[in-house]
Amino acid sequence: MAARARALADAWESQGRGPAVPTYASVVVRFDPLRLAPADAEREVMRLAQAHGHAVKEGGRLVEIPTHYDGPDLLETAERSRLSVEELVALHTGREYRAFFVGFLPGFAYCGVLDPRIVAPRLLSPRARVPAGSVAIADGQTSIYPFDSPGGWRLIGRTDVRLFDSTNQPPVLIRSGDRVRFVAL
Amino acid sequence: MIRIESAGLRSTVQDRGRFGHLREGVPPSGPVDPGAFAAAQALVGNDAFEAAAIEIVGGTFVFKCDDRRIVAVTGRDVALRGRDVVPGWTAAFARPGETFTVVCGERSRFAYLAVSGGIATETILGSRSVYLPAGLGRSLRAGDVLPLGSARVDVERAGRFAVSPDYDTGQIRTIMGPHAQRFTDEADSLFFSAEFQVEPESDRMGTRLSGLRIGAREGEILTTGVVAGAVQIPSGGAPIVLLAEHQATGGYPVIATVISADLGLVAQRLPGERLRFTRVDRDLAVAALRDARAALEAIA
Fold first, then answer.
1. Angle at CA of residue B295, ends B293 and B297, nearest 5°
2. Residues A82/A87/A90/A92 CA torsion (nearest 10 deg)
3. Are residues B30 and B114 in the same domain?
């Protein structure tokens, strides 16, 4: 579904009418309503959605995230999941994730899906400050906080890699569609 | 060059926004009051889609330009003091080295200073808009010297003015939100009859409201892209109107979307002031934007 959203967003952007933001199951398309009537934009999006309606086969680059598994929620999440810390780490590092999309913060990639044996609902009260580089999980997904920020995901580790650097092209380490693997240090 | 002698509480360079990196999670940024920004640019003869200006928040902002320029200040309750006092929303001629103070009245929140030729700081990721949380540029400090673009100085422009919107109105026009079906008829009519109060935590990311709590069915939504003007209803029920520095994506249902022409009316409301939402159809929203642009073309 996220791959279809990306394909539709690409198709919209190739028309040069404005940017598009794909997520799990939706695409926001932007345009100037004085240059393209909203009703015409709707028709055009429907046409593109039909033309790109089939599943898209993706390769994607592989990005590895060297991770220290010492996060403040690691033990509690392992207990909640009835796993040992070692088992949780093995499950988290044991599969390749897909970056569904990037949002929330510059370079924050929503990656999934987690092994269902890891039970990690969002924290009931989010932390006021999650340090940059925190490796986090929530609701079947995993990500890395690129900047210090408030956040409600469970912190299981940290990495030293930079997720966002405005002098790089592209500025994000993980792009939507990429494959992501965590490597325990 | 423009020399900043006093920089206010938090002033940043902003152009129309950074729309090329939304898919990498980079917020658009740009002016929270796009109408005031565009008017300031039009008054000094700049293209609002290209040129950058300075967004000033609070305190005293003092500057001078090395060479002859046309300058203008817009926003709510603002004026410009050089040799004479020039009202807000009016173009003024700046002599080389003439010192100007941006006068922010007590109802002022975001003021825009445009200079003919535009603020020509370096672009980062295709935009001059400063976004502090990711270190894309920084806020201005006393002693900063910023380059200006070259521009023919048209002295005739001095005295030209634009009409300020009525910032004292608390009537905010919206169109139907993308998740309207998440709200019962009761929640919907509550939303449009209630008076909300602006909270002090409001900032460039969004205007936070208190008052009646609006309940959504099934709580949060699957994360989706969002736009400035979206009125999000978080689980607590206190609405947030997203502004220029909003995150690229959001997980709260959007009950209504403020029309482009009224974004500045929301952004410029002071903590403690009230507002209420009315509903208009999409054609009216587009017509209001068309009128606003036509008014600017008339002074450009």
1. 70
2. 20
3. yes
Looking at the fold, whether A45 and A134 belong to one and the same domain comes out as no
Length of chain B: 300
Same domain, A99 and A143: yes
Q: In whole angstroms, what is the distance from residue B9 CA to residue B59 CA? A: 5
Q: Residues 6 or more apart from B137 whose CB is under 8 A from it?
A: B12, B13, B121, B124, B128, B129, B130, B131
Q: What pLDDT is attached to residue A111?
A: 96
**Residue B216 sits in a domain of what CATH number?**
2.40.100.10
List residues of chain A with CB under 8 Å from any CB of chain B. 9, 18-28, 30, 33-34, 37-38, 101-108, 110, 146-147, 149, 164, 166, 170-172, 175-176
Name the residue range of residue A112's domain. Answer: 62-184
Query: Best mutation site among B16, B23, B203 for testing chain A: the one with the most A CBs within 10 Å?
Result: B23
Structure confidence by residue, pLDDT tens digits, B226-283: 999 999 998 889 999 999 999 999 988 999 999 999 999 999 999 999 999 999 999 9
**What is the extent of the structural domain holding B213?**
171-299
8 Å CB contact of B25 and A24: no
CA distance, residue B133 to nearest chain A CA (Å)? 8
Asked if residue A97 is part of any domain, the answer here is yes
Please tell me the total count of domains within chain B: 2
In b/e form, how buried is each residue of B211-221, taking b as 16+ CB within 10 angstroms?
beebebeeeeb
pTM for the model stands at: 0.94
